[in-house]
Amino acid sequence: MYFIMNPFNAPDEIRATKGDLIEFQRQFLKMIPYFHFAVYTVDSEADAGLINVQLNRSVGHGLTVGVALLPFSICYFLRKCSIRYKIVKKTIRDLCDNERGCRVNNLEEAATEKGLEPLDPDVIVERAREFLRRNLIENYNLFTKNCEHFATMCRYEEGFSQQASQNFYPMERIIQEVRWNEEEN
């Protein structure tokens, strides 16, 4: 089964329904492309208390719940830095860099390969909001606990990251091999 991906667009040009995962194009150090994910919760603050809000409409002012990195918090002897995050609520417009855009990407193909089905949209949104209400600050891990893990955990009840699997795990293995070789020598 193949899923057709929508192109990246400006926030007012995408259409989404609650519980969808919104993917944002990003660049690290203006060189390395990556994607940020958040859970689409409601169309706007004004719609938050309404029932039967129009589905699948333009969502530029729509709210998402997702991961936000905190400034580097603790560095031990300049060797080990702890990167922390918390769950935040932001509009799609606030998260979107219009030069790069955003789109709905529910990672359906990857979920299907794992035998996962999406939860009911109301359950997805409630799971995201429950994490938000906890107001926790946690350790971030690019390989096991990133924004994509959070978004997929809310939608599919199991967190996974295509980016980490496809791009970063091979790099992590190389780093581990180098460390093991250094320790042996």
* Rg of Cα set: 18 Å
| H/E topology pattern | EEEEEEEEHEHHEHH
Task: Decide which structural class fits the backbone.
Answer: alpha+beta
Distance between the termini: 48 Å
Strand arrangement within the widest β-sheet reads 9-2-3-5-8-10
Overall average residue pLDDT: 78
Sum up the overall morphology in one term: globular
Roughly what fraction of the amino acids lie in strands?
Answer: 25-35%
Q: Helix coverage percent of residues?
A: 25-40%
Instruction: Characterize the biggest β-sheet.
Output: 6 strands, antiparallel
Number of domains: 1
Tally of individual helices? 5
- Outline the low-pLDDT stretches: none
Number of strands: 10
Describe this entry's structure for a reader.
With 185 residues, the protein is of the alpha+beta class. It has one domain. 31% of the residues lie in helices and 27% in strands. The longest helix has 23 residues. The chain starts with 14 loop residues before the first strand and ends with a helix.
